[in-house]
Design goal:
By secondary structure, this protein is an alpha/beta fold. It has 2 domains: 137 residues, Thiamin pyrophosphokinase, catalytic domain (Rossmann fold, 3-Layer(aba) Sandwich); 74 residues, Jelly Rolls, CATH 2.60.120. The protein has 5 helices and 14 strands. β6 and β7 form a beta hairpin. The longest helix has 16 residues.
């Protein structure tokens, strides 16, 4: 059972990537497309590199290819730019073949909101496979849930949490221990009711009868990952 870290081609603050890499301590690192530049800057030798490299520095890719003779990695898998999957999805497909217990994605958010949205959708594919999955950036941790959620204030990634329905409706929703509580509520697409909740007790419990939720743990300040990535 492995922890897999994917560094992909969205916005990457290298200091934050370094902190996440240290705190998460992955067993396998997969780099997708432009993520190679963050890996190179931080002297991270990935296990795999995947992508079409239409937005990455090909000289960096060649550098990593040269490291194979030294480290026995990375394995580089190059794809045609005219393909049906994004580079992030290719990285996820590879990760799921490795029998992971968790996949964390860095560089999965940024200025391309279409890619950000697609990456959140891809979290569902991972979760549906029975694997824990999170997107992490400097201010947000995003995950998808099809069962009860328990949040601990001292382990939370931010001071706020938001619940967005991934399915049309999330029925029988109960939120306990939060500033805004609900009981047996139907949270539907097109509603902002689940946005920007806060802890009132050390433990928040979120349960629901049916549907799938997107959980955002967010902060106005840069996230402190220490002791929270395991």
């Amino acid at each position: 059972m492995k922890k897999v870290l994917i560094i992909t081609g969205g916005r990457t603050d290298t200091d934050f990537v370094a902190e996440a890499y240290k705190e998460y301590s992955p067993d396998v690192v997969i780099v997708a497309d432009r993520g190679v530049m963050a890996a190179k800057e931080l002297d991270i030798i990935p296990d795999y590199i995947v992508g079409d490299f239409d937005s990455g520095d090909t000289t960096v890719v060649e550098y990593f290819k040269s490291q194979f003779e030294v480290y026995g990695k990375p394995m580089v898998r190059t794809f045609n730019p005219e393909k049906d999957e994004t580079d992030t999805e290719l990285a996820i497909s590879l990760a799921l073949t490795l029998n992971p217990k968790e996949i964390v994605l860095l560089g999965a958010t940024g200025t391309r909101l279409d890619h950000t949205m697609a990456n959140i959708e891809l979290l569902y594919r991972i979760t549906e496979s029975g694997v824990r999955a999170r997107i992490i950036d400097e201010y947000n941790v995003i995950s998808i849930h099809d069962k009860e959620i328990t949040l601990k204030r001292d382990k939370a990634f931010g001071e706020y949490f938001s619940l967005i329905p991934f399915t049309d409706n999330v029925k029988g929703l109960n939120i306990r221990g939060a500033k805004y509580e609900v009981e047996n509520y139907i949270l539907s697409s097109g509603s902002s009711l689940g946005v920007s909740n806060e802890f009132m007790k050390n433990t928040v419990k979120i349960s629901f009868d049916s549907g799938i939720l997107i959980l955002f743990q967010t902060s106005d300040e840069r996230l402190d990952l220490r002791g929270k990535c395991n």
